[in-house]
Every structure is written in C-alpha cells, then in structure tokens.
Amino acid sequence: MKLTTALCTLTLATAQDGSQDANSQGKQDDSDQAQSYGNEGYAEQSYGEAAPMSYGFRAPELCLGACPKEAPCQHRATGACVPKMGGETYEGQSYGAQQFYGGEQQQGYRRLEESDNSYGYEAPATQDAAPVQSYAAPVQTYEPPSEGCPYGTVDTSCGSLNSHIVLWVAFALLFLPALWFFCNAFAETIVDSATGLPVGEDATTAPSILKYRVHRVIAGVICFIASLAYLAMATGHGYTVRCCDGRQFYYARYVDWAITTPLLLWEIIDYTAAPINQRFFMYAADVLMIIAGLIGSIVCGGEKWIFFGFAMLCFIPILWFLCAIRDVVDFENKTAFESLMNITVISWFFYPIIWILAEGTGTLCASAEAICYTVLDIISKSAFGFVVINHPFQIMTEGSTTDLGSSAL
Question: How far apart, in Å, are the Cα atoms of 260 and each of 44, 66, 112, 272, 396?
Fold first, then answer.
C-alpha cells in the first residue's frame, strides 16, 4: 500500500514538472515571436533615407509645396510647414512641425567637457593623479537663425505668386488689342492712306486685300490665344507644383507658345518668298523647341539641361533663317518685314535667359518670372500685331502701288 502511494506521488510530481516546462517553453516561444514581430516584421524606417522594409514597397515620395503664406518654411522629410523666424507668431501655430536646435545635446556635451571623466560627474582631485583624457565629442554650437526659415526647412514662398495682378494686366493688354485687330480685319471698307479714299475691290486687288485681312485676323488670333492662357493663370489654374522644390510651374504658357509662335513665324515668313521647305522646317523646329522646354521645366534633376540644350539646337536655326531670308523679301514689304523680324528676334532672345534663371536654377522667384514673361509676351504679340496693322501690304492697281492704311468701320 505504501509502495502504491509512493508511485502515485511520483507520477503526479513528474506530470506537474512537465506542465511547467511546457508553459515555460510556450511563454518563451511567444516572447521570441513577439520579438521577431518587433525586429523583423516592423523594420526600422527612416523618413529621410530609403530604409529596408519587409512589406515589399517603398515609402511614398514627399511632394513639397502647398504651404500657407503664414508658414512658408517646409521640412523636406516630413512636409511640415512652420513660420519664419523673427517674424510674427501667427497665433503660435507651428503647423505640425517640431523644431530641434540641439540645445539639450549641447548642454550634455558641455557637461562632459567640464567634467574629469566621461560619466558626467566631478571626480575628486588628487595631486598625484594624471589628467584624465576625455573622449566626449567636441562641442558644436548650433544657434537658431535670428530670421528666415529654421534649419532643415526650405523656404517655399519664392516658388509661388504673391499676387495675380500682373497676370490680369497681361490678360487686358492681350485681349483688348485682339479685339481691335479683329475689327480692322473685318472692316467693310479699306481706305487708302495716301488719298483717304476707299480702295475698290476687283480682280486685281482682291488677292492682296484678302491677304491684308488674313494677316490682321492672325494677329488677333495670336493675342486672343495668349489672353486665354493668362486668364487661366490669373484665375488660379494652368499650373502644377513641382514636387522637388514646391515651385509653381505654369504649363499654360507653353500651351500658348506651342500654338502662337508658329503663327508668328507665318506672319513674318509670308512677307517673303522663302521656299516651302524652309518654312516647314522653321515651323517644326519651333514646336520641338517649345516641347523640349516644357519637358525640361518639369524635370527636377540635372537632366533638365539636356532638354534645354535640345531646345537651343532648335532655336538657333530659327534665328538664323529669320535673318537669312531678308534677301528674298519684296521691296514693298521690306519695311514691315524688318520691323516684325527685329521685334521677334530681340524678344525671343530673352526667353531662354528667363528660363535659365526661373525654371532652370530657381534664381528668379515666381513673381519675378511672371513679370518677365508678361513683358516679353506683350512685346512679341501685342506690339507685333500693331506693327502688322500699321504696315499694310502694297496692292498693285493698274501698274502703280497703293498703300493700304487703317480700316474704316
């Protein structure tokens, strides 16, 4: 009986030990599994660099821009917007950004440097003790800027327009001349500028009168298209924000240029006897130039200069042909051709310069860029159209030439 009792006790003790071992092993497995979830399943992520992740996809790229005027300083890594230093506080709003200037860390460095060891406390001084070498990092002073954007942020105020007034002015200076050009083109009576008498339309004068009207219609269409582009930009449309620097890029300008610049070339070339192959070469080169400039403006890296170089390879032959075809201009149209060619060559010469300073390097802010492009567009389109109106064609009537002046409504 005693032997049976002893065997039962031993069996129960063995079973209890096995249960404890199983529970211990289960807890250890759970702990290891939790640690693996903490170390492997959720890999360390850094928001400034591409850290390895176990999910098989990369973190989305941060797109700069869209900061309010009250907080134009944007952090490249987090996208948070903060106000400039030394200005107004704007009700103490930080817009989600956290500013760290290393103040606590600097105090720690100073404490290590002032102490006799690297543990941060003052060791008892002894006469025979050798000087203790400190391995603390050198003290670095990071004073916050007195004004401007904090460290680690980018000032995005330069990349957006502060006011759309200049765009509305451009719209008016392009839309109103377009209406006047149309009125001159569709006038019922054409007056001889020399005699003040109406010019009769017959089989001899009809082709020249038709050409007279067409050039004025094209001048109005050019300004009308440009005014539509500026209307879109003035109402807050026709642009996109570049993710790399948060700059507003107005693609509406390039849509305008892709349509109007070939028409400007047609206005000039039609005064000449240039062959058809030269004409189409200039039209094609002009469109390629605008498209290459558009692509280069969107690209943020150094590849943009490749597209800019391609655009210049198309731009230089256009200027060369404009200067070369003056030899095939009719004598009676030479004055009009010279005036239109000079306006076009001089104004177009400054467009690449503005591109380098604005879209290329960002030296010009968006407001200055808008002013420069507005002045050039008004000169190359509105002033161009006024020259077309004031330099009419010479119409051959019975062996003599007649100057067609302004139209009478």
Answer: 54, 31, 69, 19, 30
